[in-house]
TrEMBL record:
<feature type="region of interest" description="Disordered">
    <location>
        <begin position="193"/>
        <end position="215"/>
    </location>
</feature>
<dbReference type="Pfam" id="PF00886">
    <property type="entry name" value="Ribosomal_S16"/>
</dbReference>
<protein>
    <recommendedName>
        <fullName>Small ribosomal subunit protein bS16</fullName>
    </recommendedName>
</protein>
<dbReference type="InterPro" id="IPR023803">
    <property type="entry name" value="Ribosomal_bS16_dom_sf"/>
</dbReference>
<keyword id="KW-0689">Ribosomal protein</keyword>
<feature type="coiled-coil region">
    <location>
        <begin position="123"/>
        <end position="150"/>
    </location>
</feature>
<dbReference type="GO" id="GO:0005840">
    <property type="term" value="C:ribosome"/>
</dbReference>
<dbReference type="InterPro" id="IPR000307">
    <property type="entry name" value="Ribosomal_bS16"/>
</dbReference>
<keyword id="KW-0687">Ribonucleoprotein</keyword>
<comment type="similarity">
    <text>Belongs to the bacterial ribosomal protein bS16 family.</text>
</comment>
<keyword id="KW-0175">Coiled coil</keyword>
<feature type="compositionally biased region" description="Acidic residues">
    <location>
        <begin position="204"/>
        <end position="215"/>
    </location>
</feature>
<feature type="compositionally biased region" description="Low complexity">
    <location>
        <begin position="193"/>
        <end position="203"/>
    </location>
</feature>
Length: 215
């Protein structure tokens, strides 16, 4: 019986979640399997992988062939490295202690790379967040400045409208004042003329009195 190590799809629509299984190569992709070896969640960054390395290596020893995606996952978690080192131990090229030490060092280096990637992603996310906040702040400041400018323009427009209204009403007021003051001025002139008229009439009488005195 030919055995494959492959992924079996689970999860929701557009949010897949996979089981890593050892299954008969003739069975359907999501059909029956021989053993569940772990899980793979691609919805996180980086992807979350939970794998039973010893069981996966045992199936590799028994001739199971991983699919391309499964092979990448086994390589990422060190299962292929352990399978390779176990082959060296069987051939006598390595002792079990040397193989275990090499595998431990490889896993430590891999964990350091994963941690560095996570830290880089965290810093990138924080930088993107700071950039977004800065952009939002600038946008708010621009909106506030635009609102102040619009208020100033509206205030100037109101002042201009008031000045135009005053300018339109001023000639009418002046005309009304002129109309009201004209009769009073005429009356004042008439009174002055009336007061001065008798003096003008008395002048001939004074001249006659002067003539009589001389005679």
């Amino acid at each position: 019986m030919s055995v494959k190590i492959r992924l079996q799809r689970h999860g929701k629509k557009q949010k897949p979640f996979y089981w890593i299984v050892a299954a008969d190569a003739r069975s359907k992709r999501d059909g029956k399997y021989l053993e569940k070896l772990g899980t793979y969640n691609p919805n996180t960054n980086p992807a979350t992988i939970d794998l039973n390395i010893d069981q996966a290596v045992q199936w590799l020893h028994n001739g199971a062939q991983p699919t391309d995606t499964a092979r990448a996952i086994l390589s990422y978690k060190g299962a292929l490295m352990k399978h390779h080192l176990d082959g060296g131990v069987r051939k006598g090229a390595l002792t079990q202690e040397q193989a275990d030490a090499k595998l431990a060092k490889w896993l430590e280096d891999k964990a350091g790379k994963v941690t560095a990637k996570k830290e880089g992603l965290t810093k990138a996310q924080e930088a993107a967040k700071v950039k977004a906040l800065k952009a939002e702040k600038e946008a708010n400041e621009k909106r506030a400045a635009a609102a102040v400018e619009a208020a100033k323009v509206e205030e100037v427009a109101e002042e201009v409208a008031v000045e135009e209204t005053v300018a339109e009403e001023t000639p009418e007021v002046v005309a009304e004042v002129a109309v009201e003051e004209t009769p009073a001025a005429e009356e004042a002139v008439a009174e002055v003329v009336a007061e001065e008229a008798p003096a003008a009439e008395e002048t001939p009488a004074a001249e006659e009195a002067s003539e009589e005195t001389e005679a």
